[in-house]
Amino acid sequence: xxxxxxxxxxxxxxxxxxxSVFISLILLGCGVTGMQYSIIKSNLKxxxxxxxxxxxxxxxxxxxxxxxxxxxxxxxxxxxxxITFTATPKMVQRGDRVEITVSTPYKLWILKVLGYDQExxxxxxxxxxxxxxIR
Length: 135
Hints:
The chain is α+β, with helices and mostly antiparallel strands. It has helices at 2-7, 12-58, 63-75, 109-113, and strands at 84-87, 97-107, 119-129.
């Protein structure tokens, strides 16, 4: 019976098809996960750059600047409560460096589907020089 099953080729096409579909779904899931990661990173970078422009004019960050960043993140469809915001506090002198660093956790979707719960941190950073001279 076993010898007949091994020599029989009647289910080979179905088995090959099922394995091919499974591999294709895994590759598609990896692509979706990669796209989600890059979109979130791009949104964080854009929000950090926009907020940096405000920080340059105001010579640092305060709660108002943090609120501006949160509004940017909401406009991108992201939840600002999950985003860590670190920035150079006010008041720095003209020509001094101002920096902003934002990060958020991201669960890798494809690994979650496969039964693993892996989380990575997506970080974006921007820096520039303060514009206003303070007397």
